[in-house]
Amino acid sequence: MTLLQHPIFRRLYAAHIVHIIGNEFTFIAVVGLLHDLSGSGLSFAAGTVFRMVPYVLTSLFSGALVENWDKRRVMLIVNLLRGILVSLFFLITSVTYLWIAFLLLILVNICSAFFQPAMQVAIVSSVEERDRLAANSLLQGTTSFLIIVCQGIAAVLVYLFSYRYNFLLDAACYLLSLFILLRLPPIAEAVAHKTGTHFFARLQEGFRYIGGNRRIGQVILYQMAERACAAYYIMLMFYVLQERGEGLYVFGLLDIPLGLGGVIAGIAAGRLAERLNEQGISRFQGWALIAMGLSIVAVFHIKPLLGLAVAILFCSFASFSSSILSVTKLQKLADPAFLARVFSIREMATMGAFSASCLVLGFCAEQVGSAAVSVWLGLFGVVAGVFWLWSRKQLHRLEEQESSVHPE
Fold first, then answer.
1. What integer pLDDT is reported at residue 190 of this predicted model?
2. What is the count of structural domains for the chain?
3. Residue 64: which residues within 8 A CB-CB, separation 6 or more?
4. Domain range for 229
5. CA distances for 162 relative to 26, 226, 249, 256, 332, angstroms
6. Given this model, what pLDDT does residue 66 score?
């Protein structure tokens, strides 16, 4: 593959693989830790909020700061700090120290908020525009494949041993990722150069740029709706571990169809982009949201585990497909000078929607049951998808009218 012949993308890709391997081990370990220390649906939601809220708030300004920093150095420092912090989870053994677990989640995700805009700038700087969809599909497809493999391995390790050792494996992966990035070649930033403009002025410019670019704003709103639907996953923890009384390894195994859906999406997204025009891709995004809504309802109303896994597979495919296509759209639409700010604001908006939804869904699931809540969440997904399809049709008509009034 020609993408992997590029030295910058190849090392970013390798570091990403190693990081995802460790991250999947830690994810199930954090679920196990919260289950042991508390076990309530609200604690699962709180864990997600303590991961996402710091990420959201930090993303508000991380892009504007990263613009003036060395991207390679940012990624190196972030991986070093995350490796140290993740290893400290291993020492938490009592509910007395539950607050320390939440504090570590906060610190790890503050660090992570600086990594995403730095990596996006590195990808756009090193990958030509015609290859970016392939790059995003490769990253997403690999991530999803690793979810399948690593969650399966993690589930077996949890069943045979203690989930605590997963924290140490993740710390080792962060350090290995750091060593891979140490040899990252210089990143040439043709447009996004260092600027003396005040930080808050650059931040305001970023918001004004998005506000003045209708298409970018609409893509971000679409992704907020998709992330709100994806928060069903927090209910899945409560549903599987508490309402169904399954073991932690079962929850880990259910991540396999989640990853498989992402793999299929990574393959399908590139082919869809080749066969469909811009209008066709927008229609696919709308139907993907509708499919997510229907799948969410199915997840919490199908009793056999096999049926539950199939519903998760369909939901995952719809979610990952829409995400790949949306990220590629943003990379194409955004001016390179604003790219870091666009993606940091996008992270703030989408993860903010995800965090708020997780907290609401976790609380409501504990009050009235996950099955009832899933109906309302599914309805939201269907309505959001229908609204997206309607808005795309209106935008297309408006553009046709403008082109007829101002022909080239």
1. 46
2. 1
3. 199, 202, 203, 206, 340, 341, 344
4. 2-399
5. 12, 34, 11, 20, 45
6. 77
Between CA 295 and CA 312 the distance in angstroms is: 7
For 366, residues 6+ apart whose C-beta sits below 8 A from its C-beta are 40, 41, 42, 238
Q: 346 and 287 in contact (C-beta within 8 Å)? A: no
Please state, in angstroms and rounded to a whole number, the distance separating the CA atoms of residues 353 and 342: 16
Q: Tokens for 406?
A: 């101002």
Residue the block writes with tokens 């991250």: 23
> Is the pLDDT at 45 greater than 70, yes or no?
no
pTM, to two decimals: 0.69
In this structure, what is the dihedral angle of CA atoms 375, 381, 384, 390, given to the nearest 10 degrees?
-100
Angle between helical axes of 370-405 and 278-299 (0-180°, round to 10): 170
List the Cα angle 321/324/327 in 5-degree steps.
145
Q: Is 52 contained in some domain?
A: yes
Q: Which residue has the tokens 């290893």?
A: 87
Residue 406 domain-assigned (yes or no): no
CATH number at residue 17: 1.20.1250.20
* pLDDT for the residue 41: 52
**Assigned domain for 263 exists:** yes
Instruction: Give the separation between CA 320 and CA 168, rounded to whole angstroms.
Output: 29
The enclosing H or E element of 234 equals: helix 232-238
Residue 247, in any domain of the structure = yes
Calpha distance 73→118 (Å, rounded) = 9
What single letter denotes the amino acid at residue 278? E
- Residue whose structure tokens are 């972030």: 78
